[in-house]
Write a structure and sequence with these properties.
Arginase, Chain A, eight-stranded parallel beta sheet, globular
Amino acid sequence: MAPDKGKAIREAKIAEFNPNENGLRETGIFGLPFGEDESLIVLLPVPWEATVSYAEGTAHGPEAILKASRQIDLYDEILTGGWKAGIAMKEISETWHEASHDYRARAKMYFQEIGSEEVISPQALENLKAVNLASETLNKWVASETESLLNDGKIVGIVGGEHSVPLGYMQTLAKKYPSFGILQIDAHADLRKAYEGFEYSHASIMYNAMQIQQISKLVQVGIRDFCTEEAEFTESNKERIKAFTDYSIKRKLFSGSTWDDVCNEIIASLPEYIYISYDIDGLQPWLCPNTGTPVPGGLLLEETTYLIEKAITAGKKIIGFDLCEVAPGDGEWDGNVGCRVLYKLCLLTAKSNRL
């Protein structure tokens, strides 16, 4: 890791900060006083949802998480002083938020036509092309932003947005790490190739990730909604992909295995360096009722936390993470849960890297 240039500023801010009253602050993720320069963990919000295939709203996820985060109590038994590593979130890009709205409208026009017409019009194909080009530009922006942060010695977390958004970050990590794995918490396999014609669909993120040769292993946990194409892709790439479906996990638990037993099996499949890709719909739907594609079944937050913490204890090192598909709906519950998932990911990353 690069020298900690912001240590003196961070320590000065810690000395002046009351961690029992973070909820009084209107600036900073989790009510923390840190800026990007003095933080060791920096969050990049990506308010993008052009390709979502069911309900909308995840482009508002970063804002909802930020707003709810100031009500978190900072003391957490994962790492009681973990916030002192410095956690900051970059400003939410209004440019990308507006672009998401515009390209989502073009995607919807394309959807309407492919669902009702046998022959696709030139205008629909133009909309498809435009969304694909915009998604590619977004990936390049995410890659550039994360590369700059990594060069400054930061550990980066992506806050989506739809699940397509971390691809550029994965590509950036591949420049730094010759080999690493992905631990995916998700209801969906996301292994479809160019789903519905969108090359960078939210349903294609892991297919696209598997094109990155430095990613040696994809370990999926909680998967419970996938198609034949994805099952066949997993089978044909079983040296690189290991799926712990919700069905298989529950069968083990129902027959007498413990969650600890299941975690041991999952962790044994992971390489030393891991990237965590956390789709909120991997959790049980009552924890994320407004996410775009909720699916019955799933995991508890405590179960995913236990799994990741146990992986750290086993010597796995977190090199980055994302949290995607948080959609606030009309209330505050989804943002409330989302910010707590995000805080635990930050603390677990700090613990893994001994920050």
